[in-house]
Hints:
- The chain is an alpha+beta fold.
Amino acid sequence: MKKEYCGLFGVYGHPEAARMTYFGLYAMQHRGQESAGIVTWDGEKIREQKGMGLVADVFNERHIGRELKGDIAMGHIRYSTTGASLLRNAQPFLVRHGDLRLAVAHNGNLVNTKTLREELEAQGSIFQTTMDTEVFVHLIIRHLHDNPIEEAVRLACRRIKGAYSMLIMANDKLIAVKDPNGFRPLAIGRLGDNYVLASETCAFDLIEAEYLRPLSPGEMVVIEDGKMHSMQMFEELQPKKQCIFELIYFARPDSYVFGEVVYERRKEMGKVLAREAPVDADLVMPFPDSGNYAAIGYSQESGLPLELAMIRNHYVGRTFIQPTQGMRDFSVRVKLNPVKSMIQGKRIIIVEDSIVRGTTIRTRVKKLRELGAREIHMRVSCPPIKHPCFYGIDFSSKGELIAANHSVEDIARFLGLDSLHYLTIPGLLSAVSRENEYCLACFDGNYPVKVEDSAGKMCLEDNGGRPGIIKEYC
Ligand code: 5GP
Ligand code: MG
């Protein structure tokens, strides 16, 4: 079972389609740093370039300016946190079938792929990767014999369950689909006479495209001959279950996601937090960058001064030379360092966007104590994360989630805090525009789509955590 963060970008009919896609992916690099890929179609041939690492490392001017020819392009960035980091699993996933050149890029996580895969294998299908996406491609191809591609995609979508926003290039058609609950974002924009698609609108801003609208849950959009058609793939409408964690942490604050301005929603969460749990202090500070926006809201609502007293090194790459011995917590320290004089003798409110495992936060709090902070209070702009996500965010097993196994008092003690308050679920919902349109499974355990695969169910029970995986949080 894999959980994936991802970013998607597509463009139709642009003379520099690969370059636009490169820029779009570059703007969304926060959605995945493990691998990147671009596929183009020039009317005759499909071309691809994929690689491990950051967008700027995977592509060079030779790829973008010369090799990736064509005026239709789509790209993908991936951040998978389980399984090996394999180039084979990089996307878009490309197959040839007769005259058809098919490329698929997926953001989300399916909850019945194991079942489908076993069924397909029993019928003779052969798989080359461990990706959900390959199962989806097989389903499309099976339906192609009696159907046009749009119908084959629609029938394949009706077999898969879970969270998906996907881009599909089928020769000269560019197709976008979203699952019936609309878990993951995907937006449509316009660039001159052309259509563009992106997970987040910050990608449109960079290429000066105009944002038109988000895709609706269950919608399929087909772009062909420069025109766009849209259809609803499912007869029965399902309730919207958009991922609220996109608004809390994941999306860039300059994006519109699900029709909401991320920056404003985060600030509002901080304001609600200040009303729910006021405390007297000398200053409010975030752990940058993700906590910044809620901290601004908290400061404005409480009237307490905001200080950016934790400084982030923005140039910490994936690999740096580790000290040989004796430097504990090095990876946290290299990234974040407090301004001592701002901390000493102060009563501090730290505004954090979320607590996942609690391990990185604990290290930073300890440092503030060492520097002589008098009181440290933490206010978290989301409710306790108690349940794993099966729809594409990496809260893998219950054992890893500190709030799944401990009370708020225990967590406060573990983190070394004088007080701790998490935003309540009603408080969180009051900070977004339409409160009944979000998935809250990681907070309340109400999973809108049943997890069918046995591996997923085991994940719900698992209490052991996963040793040996080092992740960096910010
Ligand atoms: P913890 O101390 O719980 O291990 O880490 C919490 C920090 O991780 C918070 O500052 C939060 O912004 C960040 N964070 C929350 N969710 C994610 C995630 O899914 N991926 C990454 N890389 N960081 C996250
Ligand atoms: Mg953070």
